[in-house]
Predict the structure.
Amino acid sequence: MASSLQCIDCAQQYPIQRVIYTCDACGGLLDVRHDFGDSSSEISPALFDGRLGAFIAPYSSGVWRFKELVYPGVDDSDIVSRMEGNTNLYELPRVASYAGMDTLFLKHEGENPTGSFKDRGMTTGVTQARILGMERVACASTGNTSASMASYAARAGMQGIIFLQNQQIALGKLAQGIAFGATCLQINADFDRNMELVRLVSEKLGIYLLNSINPFRLEGQKSIMFEALQQLRWSVPDWIVVPGGNLGNSSAFGKGLLEMLQVGLIDRLPRLAIIQAEGANPLYRHFRDGFRQFEAVNAETIATAIKIGNPVNLQKAIRALEWTSGVVEQVSDQQIMDAKAIIDGVGIGCEPASACSVAGAKRLVERGIIKRGDTVLGVLTGHVLKDPEATIGYHADQLPGLSPKHRNAMLQVEDDLDAIVRVLGDRAP
């Protein structure tokens, strides 16, 4: 099964072994293109279902279980894996009721090894770095990418290099990059500027770039859709709802869903809804403008994982929206944190950016775009412990400009048995 790199704009092709992130001819983004050809007849639900519960690598991974769709030509010995994926799909009636719908499934990517969906893309990205003989890999990050890259680089015996902004980095994410031995550069710049810098530095020093502009990253991330549809027994939901920051996931989902349709794993495409924070909403503005003139924004939101004002995967995300008759919505930080409290309260939890899926679905129901009877699959992108400061701040009512509607306040009680009994008696269900 042949694979190549192909420009999404002019269709110029490049060898898969070449280190390249955008098209030489027109500057467009690149896809990893697989020519499934006659092999598509071998790709079936039975093939992937037969690998469920595998103990032996690579099929024990929730990414590499779908190897024929992710990177069919790779040698198993080159794969760098932490048995990522295999994350749970939760049906949550209480959260569905909050959002105003009957059926809501949440795919919890915070259950990956480093606590976010990034591990799915990093296993394929670092695997390609190994194939290319790279010794150093780098990324700009708001936190989750750096944690994942540092882990997989360490597993592969490579030096990881992280470009971080000097404020609003959640400690749960920063700690991982440091712990896994990466070289961390804290720069007085926002994510978008750090993205420019890491691309320039990587080119000058021959370092392999592992942000989502790298098309191999998205090949791993599209497995979220493969696995979710497998968990739904290959029954297609009406909607896929996902947070939008750098737009890697939404881009990957569009590509993965289209490939599943092409090889016959599914018989129709769901609609895609990309949800952005009001303070980091360049795609939403572009969508509302009919995709006429894109303008970057100075991003500001409590959902730091999506605090991105100039997303590199913009054109791929637009393509995914066109393929799926998709929509873009925005939600406020208040709506994000209230939805997070509801998700946390059913015992699974998530970081703030993840809660955009539920907050956005609720908003789309209110607008009549998602119908109450529609089946909705939302993606939770990160673990609740990724940003504990935001969680504590919400419930302590210490977040500027926000009023916690679903507060679980800390109770202060004296060292007195009767006082403790009295407080707990007052709070009996």
The longest helix spans residues 248-263.
